[in-house]
Amino acid sequence: MKTTPAVAVALLIAAGLALLGYFVGDGVRNIRSTDRSVSVRGLAEREVTADTAQLSIRIERAGPAPAAIFPALLARQNDVMSFLQQQGIKDEEIETGQWSTSRTDAQELKADPSLPRYTVSGAIGVSTHNISAMDSAYGKINELRIKTGGAVTEVSITYKFTGIGKLRSEMIAAATQDARNAAAQFANDSGSRVGSIRNASQGVFQILAPGAERDDPESIRKIVRVVTTVDYELRD
Question: In DSSP terms, which residues pair with 46 in a beta bridge?
């Protein structure tokens, strides 16, 4: 049987396309087999104690004229400072602010002439690393209110943890190991094994109150949390 030139050319083209298709298909299979990976997250948490505390105490006195109020407010300010020192707060950790004077609105005086004409207010601030002393002072604020005859009007406290730098390396390593454990479980379930890290990103360090998803400024106990995202290569 003779094969015409046109038929021969067609056969050659068909064979070439088939061969090309084989190599392309084999190449895709190879890429897929070597391009398998898994993205996992790793978590690390540490419970810590706050290392810095800030306390703000507002005091007020009212009267007919500022000159009559100032001595009374100074006496109450001294009472507050003495109280703080008794709890273990050092003098250099206490700061007193400038006093401010406000005059009662004329319409309010018209409605109630018995109101004091002036109010003088001041603030005492504390910043310390002595957490136990601050905790003691804050726990006795009601006693201070009684002692000052109600001059203490507002109190706020904030506990902070500033030692993330010392925990950073250890916690990132723990989070990365946690991510690898998750990848190993995934690989085991899929009949693979974990290869090298392809990509990794560190999440933001968070400081939370125990059992909560946000911080509580009044909580001495804190949870430091970091989450890492790691892409691992999977091998057969």
Answer: 224
In angstroms, the CA 163 to CA 98 distance is 32
pLDDT above 80: residue 221: yes
pLDDT in tens, 80-118: 999 999 999 999 999 999 999 998 888 887 788 778 789
Residues in Cβ contact with 92 at an 8 Å cutoff, skipping those fewer than 6 apart: none
- CATH code that applies to domain 52-160: 3.30.70.2970
**H-helix or E-strand containing 9?**
helix 5-34
Q: 190, 40 in Cβ contact below 8 A?
A: no
161 vs 174: CA distance, rounded Å: 20
Closest Cα to residue 5, out of 168, 13, 231? 13
pTM metric for this prediction: 0.76
Helix/strand/coil (H/E/C) assignment for every residue in 24-52: HHHHHHHHHHHCCEEEEEEEEEEEEECCE
Give the architecture-level CATH label for domain 37-48+163-235: 2-Layer Sandwich (3.30)
Q: Are 37 and 190 in contact (CB under 8 A)?
A: no
